[in-house]
Amino acid sequence: MRVVIAEDSVLLRAGIERLLADEGIETVAAVEDGERLLEVLDEHRPDLAIVDVRMPPTFTDEGLRAVLRARERMPDLPVLVLSQYVEERYAVELISSGAGGVGYLLKERVADVAEFVDAVNRVARGGTAIDQEVISQLMARGRRNPIDALTPREREVLGLMAQGMSNAAIAKSLTVSDGAVEKHVGNIFAKLGLEPSQEEHRRVRAVLAYLERR
């Protein structure tokens, strides 16, 4: 089996590659961003792509967007998505596509070698491997407000956004780096399902969602 890995963490990327090698699975390319992923997929046409949801430059949904673009060009491409937590909107989009060869696992599952390798083989054969936590959250998604998915810190950042603060002002208020605030804001947009749009400002839409929840 020939695999492409897209993961921005050098350690996790190397760990997955070594784990696969121990199982006789060849990694033909390992990249750290979505654009390179598309390039190596076109070049190698692998049997499976293992892709992190969040990669540079914004660490929001680059990996998932790259996967969806890749599957438009290669509908039969098996994809195993890894995520730090459940990205419900994208999980639904992948799972509901009707195409085989789809997996969605939380990153913590990689530590269970047998479970991870089983998922790799199953997805590569055209089957599915959906994390039980993903299933549980999707079943409950209709009963929850998206704001509930935010962490306490993300809600705090969104609350300051609602007060009209810039990222720099929020960083100063919370005594954190500008980069940390940018990451929190990216997480907020992703969890609220707010994609870039020329018609609507994501920051305003996020604040509206916050005010409606209060």
From TrEMBL:
One Pfam family cited in the UniProt record for this chain: GerE
PROSITE patterns registered for this protein in UniProt: HTH_LUXR_2 (PS50043), RESPONSE_REGULATORY (PS50110)
Domain Response regulatory residue range list: 2-122
Single Gene Ontology BP annotation: regulation of DNA-templated transcription
Highest taxon of source: Bacteria
A molecular function GO annotation: DNA binding
Transmembrane region(s): none
4-aspartylphosphate: modified positions: 52
InterPro entries in the cross-refs: CheY-like_superfamily (IPR011006), NreC/VraR/RcsB-like_REC (IPR058245), Sig_transdc_resp-reg_C-effctor (IPR016032), Sig_transdc_resp-reg_receiver (IPR001789), Tscrpt_reg_LuxR_C (IPR000792), WalR-like (IPR039420)
Keywords: DNA-binding, Phosphoprotein, Transcription, Transcription regulation
Domain HTH luxR-type: 143-214
Protein's UniProt name: LuxR family transcriptional regulator
